[in-house]
Amino acid sequence: MKQTPGVTVRDADSYEGTQRYLLRNPNLSFIALVNEVLVGCAMCGHDGRRGYLQHLLVLPGHRRKGIANELVEHCLAALEKNGIVKAHIDVLTTNQLAQTYWGSQGWKRRTDIQRFSFVRKGGENV
Question: For the residues of 24-41, what is the DSSP string, one character each?
């Protein structure tokens, strides 16, 4: 993730944090392999009502081959098996590439809400 342009890595993306997330949301996140080399991944979970894609990334040399679309489809199908039919993804306002991708895939930018965050403990990069 750290080597992928446009992806922001936070302290919560540590090995331990990622392991906790995957254990809490089993069978919802996926990886893409090409010739046994990891070239992409999608982290996905839900809160019981809505699905959340946390990260979607494909290494630059493997983009525009349908890998991202396939990863997203796996996530959405897995959420649907859990009764979740609406999903969200947060995209940084500075990540124009991601904004273009999600818009081209039929995802709608929300203008009716604003996200607020609160950090109870830790630094700015939690």
Answer: HSTT--EEEEETTEEEEE
Residue keyed to tokens 């273009």 = 100
Cα–Cα dist 61/100, whole Å: 18
Count CB atoms within 10 A of the CB of residue 56. Answer: 23
Parallel/antiparallel/unpaired status of strands 51-58 and 87-89: parallel
- Reported as type and span, the H/E element at residue 32 is strand 30-34
- Hey, is 89 helix, strand or coil? strand
Residue 82 CA to residue 51 CA, distance in Å, equals 10
The rounded distance, in Å, linking the Cα atoms of 34 and 57 is 14
C-alpha 82/C-alpha 2 separation (Å) is 31
**pLDDT tens sequence across 46-99:** 999 999 999 999 999 999 999 999 999 999 999 999 999 999 999 989 889 999
Task: Report which of 42, 104, 38 is spatially closest to residue 73, judged by C-alpha positions.
Answer: 42
